[in-house]
Amino acid sequence: MLQHISRRTLAQMFAVAGIRYMVGPAHADDAPTEADISREAILYDPAAPTAGNPKGDLTIVVFFDYNCPFCKKAEPELERLVKTDGKIRLVYKDWPILTPDSIKGAQWALAAKYQNRYDAAHLAMMGIPGPKIPAERMREAIAKSGVDMDRLDADFQAHGDDITKLLRRNLAQADSLGLMGTPAYIVGQYRVTQALNYEGFKRVAADARARAAQK
User: Fold this and answer.
1) Dist CA 72 CA 25 (whole Å)
2) What function is annotated for this protein (predicted)?
3) What mean pLDDT do residues 106-117 have?
């Protein structure tokens, strides 16, 4: 698990990356609200990308960073579970906390969502081995995945404020859950703060379903 950096350092990173997203709100009315960090918001934020079965009986939320090698190692294991299980709804929480280039990657992935290519951009960046991947290499990988880069740039310009607000909500939600690093998962009622293999994800999913059935 890679550790969460301090808020001050994170704010400095955002400034270096040229992003309008800061840890603190740009305006008083931009501060995260109780609604932003509610369980409903964590599970069902309409702006958050999703995969798997939209009507699944179990939701898994993954907080990740494109420069986290442990996230990349666990990614295919989680994807395998979602595919073989067939009843899991997967929610992606872009949480760029490691480097300024992580922020760029998250921005581009979320901009690709407007052309229905978030999955392509996400998998392309997750497929780059190692930590501290430069933004230029991320962008090259996204382009090779078939994403229309001219449209991506136009969508980012048009929807940059919405992307900023989503990243801010993701940060607030991670803080409200006490998450300290990537990867982190919410599996039903369980919080998992380490990378798992397929069998590990399978066991946690089974435990989450069993616990839900007891209520």
Assistant:
1) 30
2) May be required for disulfide bond formation in some proteins.
3) 98
**100-121: burial string, b at 16+ Cβ within 10 Å, e else:** bbbbbbbbbbbbbbbeebbebb
Answer whether 203's CB lies under 8 Å from 85's CB: no
Per-residue model confidence (pLDDT) at position 2: 52
Tokens describing residue 21: 């997203």
Q: Are 151 and 117 in contact (CB under 8 A)?
A: no
Task: State which amino acid sits at residue 136.
Answer: E
Number of domains in the chain: 1
pLDDT at 21: 36
**Distance, CA of 150 to CA of 176 (rounded, Å):** 36
Query: What φ, ψ does residue 61 adopt, rounded to 5°?
Result: -110, 130
Structural domain boundaries enclosing 57:
2-213
Peptide bond into 131 cis (omega under 30): no
Mean pLDDT of 163-190: 94
C-alpha distances out from residue 154 to 1, 111, 115, Å: 35, 9, 11
CATH of the domain at 12: 3.40.30.10
How many angstroms separate the CA atoms of 53 and 70, rounded? 25
Contacts of 174 (CB under 8 A, 6+ apart): 4, 63, 93, 95, 184
- Termini Cα distance of the chain: 32
